[in-house]
Design brief:
This protein is mainly alpha-helical. It is 51% helix and 11% strand.
Length: 328
């Protein structure tokens, strides 16, 4: 049974605003999960585990030996595709309950759909390339010695003295990419034929859980913005303090990461935190600068560093965290 967990409370010393009760949350967001399945590339070997335990005069269940069926690098492309998809799914959604679903604001829905389509295509292409070389990979597993077992490899069969991918569907079924979307209900949607007192109790519990989830999601948005602003503050301070000829690089990604955050914040701010909106707009006005111009203009560097430090300091004070400083 799916449980509704109330997220951890206060990371900040101050309360995060939540939408007024007359606002229907179900019209502003939905629940979304991302599920990606892959062939693990390793397998538990009970016989080898027992043999190792015997060598070390240990109990049979003292350890588990997992065989890596193919070199790790052969799964790297698929692993990267999975990681990027999960990162963007998390970026375009907010934490919610503990059942794998996250809140997807309606304003970010189409961007999420298009982004996941691209990731699914990349994932399937990587899987297809892996399938094309899978037979050759299995044939070249002399690295496993006597640990090799053809039954560990889905779809592989021995035809005479040759290993072949005879049943590719057995391999393909290990790989999957799926998003699921569910409605996000308000506490007012709770209608069950039980006593009024119990119904009101459950409704209050739902309201508290939803409000707690909104606070957790909003705190995450504050943290995202703080991370990129404090990073710029530190980098600009280090650059300005360094002697000419030994200055660190100012990478475009420093500003691009801020652009990415301030562009998505209005879509994800379903709690309508006006303070967060104001800060995002201030960041947009003050910190979205061209790194080439930063290198050319000392006055621009000084102004940008001051603005970044000021915003980061105010955010840290509000969030109750220790401000990040150079070389800390």
């Amino acid at each position: 049974m799916t449980t509704m967990a109330v997220p951890q409370s206060s990371l900040f010393p101050l309360d995060i605003p939540v939408p007024p009760k007359d606002t229907s949350l179900s019209s502003k967001a939905m629940l979304c999960s991302l599920s990606i399945g892959t062939w693990p590339g390793y397998k538990y070997d009970p016989q080898a585990s027992e043999e190792i335990a015997e060598i070390h005069q240990a109990e049979k269940d003292a350890g588990r030996f997992n065989k890596r069926l193919i070199p790790r690098k052969e799964m790297k492309e698929i692993t990267r595709a999975v990681s990027q998809a999960r990162r963007d799914h998390a970026f375009l959604t907010l934490p919610w309950f503990d059942d794998g679903y996250r809140a997807l604001p309606a304003a970010a829905y189409m961007e999420h759909v298009e982004t996941m389509k691209l990731h699914e295509a990349n994932f399937k292409a990587a899987v297809s390339r892996f399938e094309n070389r899978f037979e050759a990979l299995v044939r070249n597993q002399s690295r496993l010695g006597t640990l090799f077992n053809v039954e560990d490899y889905p779809g592989i069969r021995k035809e005479g003295d040759v290993l072949r991918l005879t049943f590719p569907d057995e391999l393909r079924k290990w790989f999957s990419f799926k998003t699921n979307v569910l409605p996000l209900h308000d506490a007012d949607d709770f209608r069950v034929a039980i006593g009024d007192e119990e119904r009101h109790r459950i409704k209050r519990q739902l309201e508290e859980s939803i409000q707690a989830s909104l606070r957790v999601g909003t705190r995450e948005l504050w943290q995202r913005l703080y991370n990129v602003v404090s990073h710029m503050s530190v980098r600009m301070a280090e650059y300005n303090a360094a002697q000419s000829g030994s200055k660190p690089k100012l990478y475009k990604a420093m500003v691009e990461n801020i652009v990415e955050i301030v562009d998505v914040l209005p879509k994800l701010n379903i709690a309508r935190d006006s303070g967060l909106d104001r800060l995002a707009n201030e960041v947009r006005r003050s910190l979205l600068v061209d790194t080439k111009e930063l290198k050319k203009s000392e006055s621009l560097r000084v102004d940008t560093a001051k603005a970044a430090a000021d915003i980061a300091e105010r955010m840290a004070a509000y969030m109750g965290v220790q401000p990040t400083t150079p070389n800390q």
